[in-house]
Design brief:
It contains 18 helices and 10 strands. It is an alpha/beta fold and about 450 residues long. It has 3 domains: about 160 residues, Beta Polymerase, domain 2 (2-Layer Sandwich), CATH 3.30.460; about 150 residues, Rossmann fold (3-Layer(aba) Sandwich); about 110 residues. The strands form 2 sheets. It has a 6-stranded parallel sheet. The longest helix has 28 residues. It is elongated and about 110 Å long. The two termini are about 25 Å apart.
């Protein structure tokens, strides 16, 4: 069995692709049920800048294929189209990748302090769907612990940043500050609440507009800002200098015509629109309107690149923590999957060796003590040499866990009825590993 991840993020794909593969919170149960039918364990991490699916699968190659088909189907893409924008990792590389993601080292904004909460939500959703088992459950806990360690032990955690803070900084830069500037926050979820806190801190006058009137009023009251009903969205846009939209709507909620009307009601005044949603909330065509500056997540990625440059010197300690925690997890993994098989194999070989030695020595009563020692040493050395390569391979090969199960079956260390052999690697992988001679696969 292998830990496998297939995904895409802000570095590998534009927002136009990412929005097709975004999973709304309400869609997660059904998606996890479909995923659970393909793999033993799995969870989905879907944020504004990444969609990744993690699984505990039979084999790295076939597992990645299953996950690619799953994602491609969800986004209405072919597998070939998906592979243009996606990546896949397995074994320790997959573990390290998740630890870096959790620590904010793979985020658009280096050190993003929102990803931990998003990962917790992803793991909780998988638990509720019975898709998170002992392996990925432990992996998720280890990732969260790694993120906490990076934040408490390195400079990355001393000045928390996020996509929201970068967006607010971008608005400040374009308007020369936000003190007294009127801002419409469209949406009433976690991102909206975080955005309001940043905007309030910059001195902006905020109005929050949401579809759910109860939730909108609660957010407005908690953040001490003004609430407006959804029916007044157009009017609120016309009264604002900045629009920050972050709903979970599956389609555009602010179209070009709405922003055209807003601009007519405010001639000669610029309007900065920040679209933090995936799928996007604001019609991309609105960027061509005179006086409108539209920044979606891809545009903000350019702003975030400066942030990454400033914080790059802080990466060394964080990467060392990730490496250390990855090794620790892989030690647990090896102990769980490989060590029992090695112990059983060694015990079976030693038992056979000792039994055959006693049988042979009983037929050679005239051997001197020295000669008997030579025979015993010979038997030990033969067994050790025969076992050395298999044991080393089980410990070091990424497919060691799968091989361990096969070894247990081949040597009768587990009952055939409970073998549950993993899906075997494809011939190309086996040939590359030296398991199958090249001529046997041609």
């Amino acid at each position: 069995m292998q830990i496998v991840v297939v995904g895409l993020n802000h570095d590998t794909s534009p927002v136009a692709v990412r929005e097709r593969l975004a999973f709304a919170e309400s869609a997660l149960p059904a998606a996890l049920e479909r995923l659970r039918s393909k793999v033993q364990e799995g969870f989905l991490l879907s944020t504004c800048n990444r969609t990744e699916v993690y699984a505990f699968a039979g084999h790295a190659g076939s597992g990645a294929q299953h996950l690619s088909h799953f994602l491609a189907s969800a986004g209405g893409l072919t597998v070939a189209e998906l592979e243009t924008f996606s990546y896949s990792h397995a074994h320790d590389v997959a573990v390290r990748h998740l630890f870096r993601v959790a620590a904010g080292l793979d985020s658009m904004v280096l050190g993003d302090d929102q990803i931990v909460a998003q990962l917790k939500c992803a793991l909780d959703a998988a638990r509720r769907a019975s898709a998170l088992g002992p392996v990925l459950g432990r992996l998720g806990d280890a990732a969260l612990a790694t993120a906490k360690r990076v934040r408490t032990a390195t400079a990355i955690g001393r000045a928390p940043v996020s996509v929201v803070s970068i967006a607010v900084q971008a608005a400040e830069s374009r308007l020369g500050g936000l003190r007294g500037v009127r801002v419409a926050v469209v949406g009433a979820g976690r991102v909206a609440a975080t955005a309001i806190q940043h905007l309030e801190g910059a001195g902006a006058a905020v109005t929050v507009v949401g579809r759910d009137p109860v939730r909108t009023e609660l957010v407005a009251a908690a953040c001490r800002v003004t609430a407006a009903p959804w029916s007044e969205l157009g009017q609120t846009l016309g009264e604002s200098d900045v629009v920050l939209s972050c709903t979970s709507a599956p389609t555009v909620v602010i179209d070009r015509s709405m922003l055209e009307s807003a601009c007519r009601s405010r001639p000669s005044r610029p309007l900065v629109c920040l679209d933090l949603a995936v799928p996007r909330d604001i019609d991309p065509d609105a960027a061509s309107l005179p006086g409108v500056t539209l920044l979606d997540l891809d545009a903000l990625n350019l702003v975030a690149a400066v942030n990454r440059g400033h914080r790059a010197l802080e990466l060394g300690d964080a990467e060392r923590i990730v490496s250390e925690r990855t090794e620790r997890f892989m030690d647990w993994w090896q102990g769980r999957e490989v060590v029992p098989a090695i112990t059983q194999l060694r015990a079976r070989a030693d038992a056979i060796r000792d039994a055959e030695l006693e049988r042979a020595l009983a037929r050679l009563p005239e051997l001197s003590e020295h000669d008997e020692l030579v025979v015993r040493t010979l038997a030990v050395r033969i067994v050790n040499k025969l076992l050395h390569h298999p044991i080393t391979t089980l410990k070091d090969d990424p497919e060691g866990a799968n091989m361990a199960r096969i070894v247990q079956y081949l040597f009768g260390l587990i009952p055939a009825s409970s073998a549950c052999l993993p899906e075997m690697p494809k011939p190309d992988h086996m040939r590359a590993a030296g398991v199958v001679p090249a001529e046997e696969t041609q």
